[in-house]
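Predict the 3D structure for this chain.
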Amino acid sequence: MPPPMTCPRATIAVAAGLSLAAAPALAQTCTATSTGVAFGAYSTTQVAPTDATGSVSVRCTALLSLTVSYTVDLATGGSGTYSARAMAQGAATLGYNLYTTAARTTVWGNGTGGTSRISTLGILITPLTPHNATYTVFGRIPARQNVTIGPYTDGILATVTY
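Done. Predicted structure below.
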């Protein structure tokens, strides 16, 4: 058995990039911000998975009283697939995934290929009562991956469509 290795830092940067699909005549605006999922140290000998969280926050404002609906999608990242997201350090990879719930059973994606997305329907907003929501991004690195020591990163694009 190889000696235990600990990666000094494994982080995922969840970047809030917006794809805002709204007609100019609408008197509403939605913006998003995010905090990354920082896993910290990962040990190849640990029997339990390594969990961490980040968040995506959405704020919608309006000039008139109206309802707003939106979706929040997370992209695949560097791996190009939702089923096996991977952080990289050069050619080396460390598998992980992002989920919509603390149980970490539903992969957060764009609603295709068995993934789920965050969706809201018909939220009433007025000039005096904007809509603010923060959604937790639940991350997990499966246990006992044989990887080299070093920092592993991935970039995930969050898209809010309203």
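The chain is about 0% helix and 50% strand.
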